[in-house]
Structure formats: structure tokens, C-alpha cells
Amino acid sequence: MFPKNAWYVACTPDEVADKPLGRTICNEAIVFYRGHEGKIAAVEDFCPHRGAPLSLGFVRDGELVCGYHGLVMGCDGHTQSMPGQRVRGFPCNKVYAVEERYGFIWVWPGEAAQADPELIPHLEWAVSPQWAYGGGLYHINCDYRLMIDNLMDLTHETYVHASSIGQKEIDEAPVSTKVEGEMVVTSRYMENIMAPPFWRAALRGNGLADDVPVDRWQICRFTPPSHVLIEVGVAHAGNGGYEADARFKASSIVVDFITPETDTSIWYFWGMARNFKPGDQQLTDTIREGQGKIFAEDLEMLERQQQNLLRHPERNLLKLNIDAGGVQSRKIIDRWLAAEQSALIATDKVAAGQV
Amino acid sequence: MFPKNAWYVACTPDEVADKPLGRTICNEAIVFYRGHEGKIAAVEDFCPHRGAPLSLGFVRDGELVCGYHGLVMGCDGHTQSMPGQRVRGFPCNKVYAVEERYGFIWVWPGEAAQADPELIPHLEWAVSPQWAYGGGLYHINCDYRLMIDNLMDLTHETYVHASSIGQKEIDEAPVSTKVEGEMVVTSRYMENIMAPPFWRAALRGNGLADDVPVDRWQICRFTPPSHVLIEVGVAHAGNGGYEADARFKASSIVVDFITPETDTSIWYFWGMARNFKPGDQQLTDTIREGQGKIFAEDLEMLERQQQNLLRHPERNLLKLNIDAGGVQSRKIIDRWLAAEQSALIATDKVAAGQV
Amino acid sequence: MFPKNAWYVACTPDEVADKPLGRTICNEAIVFYRGHEGKIAAVEDFCPHRGAPLSLGFVRDGELVCGYHGLVMGCDGHTQSMPGQRVRGFPCNKVYAVEERYGFIWVWPGEAAQADPELIPHLEWAVSPQWAYGGGLYHINCDYRLMIDNLMDLTHETYVHASSIGQKEIDEAPVSTKVEGEMVVTSRYMENIMAPPFWRAALRGNGLADDVPVDRWQICRFTPPSHVLIEVGVAHAGNGGYEADARFKASSIVVDFITPETDTSIWYFWGMARNFKPGDQQLTDTIREGQGKIFAEDLEMLERQQQNLLRHPERNLLKLNIDAGGVQSRKIIDRWLAAEQSALIATDKVAAGQV
């Protein structure tokens, strides 16, 4: 259960650099490739000739060629040509709205006609030279909402990431959740604590002492369908915490684009954007490597949680205060799903001539 | 189809030495761990907060801590605490009766209230200093009753274990099966034969000549739900066979605790107890290694037999005289299953106010 | 959906040289072994005693011995003996008609009574000393008809085998398909072209220049249930092409026996028969190795095509002129299936006393 009329991150440019990429998104098997003038394109990954996956083919002069018998598919879903054939009557492939922006390729797995590129959220850190970004991709066998829950309740850091970003004070600090239109914000502030290893390294990376008390913050922002951006950071204590001057702090934005593959699997695009030393590529690499290890710690937990839930469909889970971020996020998703369902029924009625 | 109100071997102490152990037994997902004062505990492997497996957590001061968000589960199934939460109203986890005895941890996957530790069979070889024991654990994808059949009809040794304990004379010796209350005993005696390789080594291990005729015996004892203990041995011929003085023989008890995981998979605890040279740890290791190789020969046969049976549900298997041990054992199991079913219906009627 | 009353290639002699072979063919689990005087035999792979696969056993004096408890199965499906048992009343195993011919073992998975060895197609290349043959076996997860389609439309060579036997001219040459009784023949002739790498090597292997224009031909012959033999070759241009004298050409027969394992998997026996330098074993090996690599290129395509089709059962595939070979072959298969179905209904009616 995921909204299909929404922008999801589908892949990164390097994944389509050399050849077409076949990827299932929201249960749709899609082939992504660079078409004319390098413009990204996305069509159903199914050759209308004999059903071969078009993603096993190649791109020639901006057109996708089926690797089985050479059918040439256009980015509009129409077969352009096929050796020795007239293709005018060939059935059309579904076409997906797709946009390349902010270093990602975004796809709208639902009705392409409804896809407005302006609905892709603005990501300042992706366009400003004052920011650097590094990230990666994990495939995880869990419902995308379990990952949203995970990210909207960072008390799990104390347990899952005990040796890096976790610390007892997260557990103990009160959490506040509010809904602002279609955004859910969960925040937690800790004052006058010692930074955990990951943040000590970040302080050092920014030329700051790592052995003095700090203020620490976590501000998680969910926006539908499934994006979670988290402002995180530490500042030498007594300088205003989150509001402290840049001289006193190390901070960043944890980036989480959670793309459903199927009902119980996701493509998880994770990364970190920082606005200190943006030109330091080695620091970017170090942070990405560290984050990759930390975020890998969630995989087993999420997959085993998913299996447990499938095994016990009758059990109701608790919704505690710490879960408010996930609970509110799911409410927004549910509203989107209901709206999509209503629109579908209305469309069907129109099609049936009932209105 | 297995009795749930019965004691099964769940694991060995080394498996819970460092961290909790998640294991499915009779279709119940259970976490085993050492609670207060090292006492073994077993609760449902499901965190009441968000469904994470508790077995991914850790033990702190005798309590099981969920590795996701720190919920503290008590060995009574009640949540003890959780950072920042009042836990009184949290739903309870199922608790399993569990006992540590004879070097094994035993679990009662059914109603804990009915679990009487006195029902665990007495194992003299496990407590007497005159005996030594070594064993191991295999996971096998077959119905637990196929393993009972296997062990209650040792003619398979001639074929499956031809190079170690098998010999043509097993096939040829008559077999006798009798039922004594809830125990099934199948026995076979062979006189004046040459010992096969495994028993030649055992004779040598006990300081006896291995190149002279021996009498050999196999006395298999099934007790429900699924324990099979087999007295096996050889004695220099003409000294009374099974009744011979210890000076003339090498004998032992093959130990088989067969614990259903699911309807078509088992945890198979195998081992050998011997009452000669009990202090010789190297001999224990050598025997365990040898037995481990021999018993591994059954795995493919049992798993492929299971697949064949699932594929041909319409085929009736033969019940020959050699199968009497397994057939009688299944009858006792069936009685237990029927009794459990009746009790369940009676309980339901009481609950429904019909009696 | 495959005809069961038909001869399929089951295995090659080397596969039953040392021990019985268990193989599923047309959803029938069969054990193949060499019985009395080395004569090939095939019975249901299920021991009537306890359901063990007989293929885990061994052959003793021309009889198949079950590896679990020593039941001796005859090639007529009757249990011959079992240690300590009277076997007269044991249920019979299904027996399969089986023939060793042309270097293959052929099986008739349907009614053995209908199996006429004369229906096995004559393979001149397998018996004539003027021919040499080399081949191999692949297991592929696809409907056997997808492989027939593949082989009856060689335009795929241009794409799937671009670096070896493919070339643009295949695509461009007109294809002709005709049905001759129960044989479908699809042929394509290309004139005055440069040979692709595989054929250049074949020309050299036959002592001919490889850098001159050639005529090339492909004549695919399907016969039911699922055999495809393809005459392929090149001749120095201007010598009559397919009809050219042997001095000017390199040619061979691509051999494809496609045996359904299940509805969506096959045993694919591929090979090449050639009538030049038949005594050159090293050339045979080189060709087999080359062909093996080329034919392995089809595997991913066929398996992914199969998955795509299972995912989109509602999509109708196109039937273009290039697909005529496969389409006509499927028509013949459909007729066989219908005939088999009618015979089955008639048999049932007879059995029910309605006629």
C-alpha cells in the first residue's frame, strides 16, 4: 500500500551511465535509460514483441533497443521500428514520468499525466555550493513504512547504533512531534552531554575539540510519500545549541529517500549532506563509509521485524509517544492513499458513463 | 502435527552463553536467555512495542532488553520497563516453561501451567560420573516422525551407513518390537559376527581385540513426544552378549532428541553416552566426530524422502515388520495428539459456558 | 502443457554410468539406471516402502537397490525382493518406456504401452562415420515453448549472440516458413556477406579462407514434441551456397532437444554435428566449448522473459512473420495436446462404462 501518484527516487545517474537499468518501483517493472540528448526516460520493462525485459537491451542513438530481436522502443512507449517490420499497430508500453534533479532520478509510478515536476521537493543542499553530499543505496526486505517508523523515532540509535551515534541521553530526552500541513516534524534536543564517537569524529573533521560537552539535536522531517530528512548536529555547549554559530558546531542533514519496490521491500537511498568543508572529498568519502556501516545495522532488524509482523498479523503494535512521528506520517500516507482510491473510483465512474 | 504439551530439548547451554537465542519450536518463535541468577528463561520472540524479535537484543542484569528501542522484557512475559514509558498496560508476551537439566535446556511449547518438570525423563548417563557424553545438533528439513521411523528401524544402517556401522547381518537378524506402556522397544541381536569399522574402533578404544567375532545388539527405546535412546554395543562372542561383563564389551547409548521446528523441519540433537573410559575427553571428541559424520549421512535421505512424500500425498507407505517400531511410536503420538485435542475442546466449552 | 505420449531426450549415457540418475521429466520424477546387461531402465523415483527416492540407491546385478532399507526394484516396477520380507503384495511403481539410441537416452513419460521406438526420429549424423558430434546440457527456468520460439527465429542471433554468430544481415534477410506434415521449416539465406567470428573459425577449421565473402544459410526444422535441428553453414560466395560442393563450405547441424522438466523449466540438450574432419576430436572439443558459451547467452534472456510473462499474464504477445516458425510449431503441439486430451476422455468413458 503506497501512493503511486507521487515522486520517488528511482536511481542515481551512475546506475544508468553505461546501460539501461531494470528496477521495480511500487510493483511496476520499469526500465530507466538515457534517451535523446541524454534525457532520462522510463518505460515499462516489457518488450511488446515477446515479453523480454527491455532492460537486457542497449541504447543506440538515444533509443532503447530490445536485446532479444532488436525492437526499438521510443521514450513515448511507442515502438519506433523493428528490423523488417511495420510497427504502427504494435501495442504501446506504459510510460513513466521521470525527472533528473538534485543528483537523483525521480519517477512517478502512477498516472504520468498527473506528474508535475514542481512537486519534487526543493533540496537546497543539493544545489548550493556550500553543501557536500555523499550517500548510497540499500535493498531491504521490509514495508517502506517500517523504515519511516525507524527514522521518525531515533531512540533506536541508543540500541541499534550503540557504538557510533547512539547514547543513553537520546532515550532520556523528551521528544516533540508536530504536524505542519503535510510535514511531520519530530525533534529532540539534548544539552550538555558528551558526543558519541561519530560526532566526535565530525567535530574533529570540522577542526573542533571533541572532548568537551556539547548540545545535540535531531529534527526529523517526514514529507509524503516517504522522504525523511533529518537535521542532526552537535555544538559546543553553551553557544546556543541548534542556533549556535557555525564556528561552534558540526551539523548535517541525514537524507533518506525510501522507495517501495514491492509491498515488503524497498530501495533505500541514504546519505548525508553537510555544510562544513564542502570541498573536502576525502571527508565526504569518510563520512559516507561511516554512515554506510551505521545504516547497515538497521537491515537485519527491519527484515526480521517484517518477518515477525507477517507471522503475527493479529498482533496490534503499540503507539507510544516516541512513535508519534511514524504514526503521524502514516496518517498522511493514509490520506494520500484514500484520495488516490477516491480519484480512481471517480475515474471509473466517468469511464462507465455514470456521471 | 506434534504434541505441544510435552518437554522437548530446545538447545544446549553453550547456545545461550553469550546472547539470547531465537529458535522456533513446534511453530512457536521463542527467545531463550539466561535471566536472574543465570536461570534459563523463554518468552515469545516478539517485542510488544513494534514486533522486533527480542532475540536480536541482549541481557542486562538478568532481563532481556529489546535491541530496537530498549523495552525490557521480564521472564514472566510482562514488560518491566522502557525508557520514558509507563509500561503497566503493555500486552503480555507468552511465556514458556523451560528447564535446564542433563546438559540440555528443555522447553514445553504448550500451556506452561501444565508443565511439570518431573515429566522430563530421567537420564542416568547424564548425571553419573561413570558415563561420558558428546553430541551435536543438526537442522533437517523433514517431519519429526520420519526421523523417529529412521531410528526405530536400524536396518537402514546397512545401506545409509554401509562403511561405518552398517553390515549385512543387521538386515538378516530378526527384529522384535513391543510396547511397554508409553515406551516402544525395538531390539535386534546378532551373534558371532565380525564387527563393522565403527565398532572395531570402539573395541580398540576400550582396549579390546577388534579382530575376533562379537555379539552385537541394538535396543531402541522411543518415548513420547519424540525421544529415542538406543542401547548399542558389541561383546567378544561367547561371553553373554548384551549381558556380558564390562571386560568383554564396548557399548554405549545413542541419544536422539528430535525437536520439531515446523511441520516439515526439525532440530535434531544427537549424541552418544558411554560408560567406558568416561574421563577420556579425547575419546569423547573422536567418537563425536565419527558419529557426526555417520549421522550426517541421513540428512539427504530424510530431506529427499520428505520432498517425495509432499509430492505424492496420495501414496500409502508400507508398514512392514521392520517398521513396527515407528508404527507403534506414531500410535502413541497419535494418542497424545487426540488427548490434547480433546482437552482443547473441553477448555473451549468451559470458556463458552457450555459446561 | 506438454504432450506426455512422446519421446524426449532424458539424459546422456555418461549421466548413468556410475549410479542411478534421478530426473524430473514432464513433471514425472523418474530414476534412470542401467539394468540387466546394461539395458537402460526407468521407473518412478519413489520407493514403495517408505517413499525414499530410489535414485539415492545403487545398482546391484542389474537391479536397483533402494539406499534406505534395501528394497530391490525391478525394471518392470515390481519389487523383486527385500531383506526379510515377502514382497508379492507390494504396490507397483510406474514404469517408463525408455530407449538408448544415437548417443542419448530417450524416455516416453506417458503411457508406456503406446511407446513405439520407431517413433524416435532417425538421426543420420549420429550413426554415420562421416559425422562428428559434441554437445552439452543446460537447465533453464522457462517454458519449453520459449526455447522453441528462440530456435525457430534466429534473428535473435544478431542481438543475443552479437559477438559470435550474430550479424546484421540475418535481420535483413527475408525468412520463409512452411509446414510439411508435422514438420515446421523456417529458412533464411544470406548471399555475399562476410562471415561472423564463429563461422570464420569454422572455415579455418576446415582449411578454408575466412576473409572472403560467403553465402550463409539457416534451415530450422521443428518436429514434435520439441526437437529442433538446424542446418547452418557458410560457403565461399558464388559456389552455390547451400548446394555448394563440400570443398567450398563449412556446415553443420545444430542439435536442440528440449525436454520439459516442469511447466516452467527445461533440460536443454544442445550440440553440433558436423560432416567435415569428423575424426578431429580436438576440433569437436573446441566447437563444443565455443557453442557452450554462445548458447549460455540465451539463458538469462529466456529466464527473465519467463518471469516477465508470468508477471503479465494479461499481455498478448505479437506474432510477426519472424515468429512464424514458433507459431506453427506451437500449433502442432496444440494439436498433439488436444489429441492426447481426447484420448484421455475416451479412456475415461470406457473405464466408466459409457461406451
From TrEMBL, chains A, B, C:
<dbReference type="Pfam" id="PF19112">
    <property type="entry name" value="VanA_C"/>
</dbReference>
<feature type="domain" description="Rieske">
    <location>
        <begin position="7"/>
        <end position="107"/>
    </location>
</feature>
<dbReference type="InterPro" id="IPR044043">
    <property type="entry name" value="VanA_C_cat"/>
</dbReference>
<protein>
    <submittedName>
        <fullName>Rieske (2Fe-2S) protein</fullName>
    </submittedName>
</protein>
<dbReference type="InterPro" id="IPR017941">
    <property type="entry name" value="Rieske_2Fe-2S"/>
</dbReference>
<keyword id="KW-0479">Metal-binding</keyword>
<keyword id="KW-0408">Iron</keyword>
<keyword id="KW-0001">2Fe-2S</keyword>
<dbReference type="Pfam" id="PF00355">
    <property type="entry name" value="Rieske"/>
</dbReference>
<keyword id="KW-0411">Iron-sulfur</keyword>
<keyword id="KW-0560">Oxidoreductase</keyword>
<dbReference type="InterPro" id="IPR015881">
    <property type="entry name" value="ARHD_Rieske_2Fe_2S"/>
</dbReference>
<dbReference type="InterPro" id="IPR050584">
    <property type="entry name" value="Cholesterol_7-desaturase"/>
</dbReference>
<dbReference type="InterPro" id="IPR036922">
    <property type="entry name" value="Rieske_2Fe-2S_sf"/>
</dbReference>
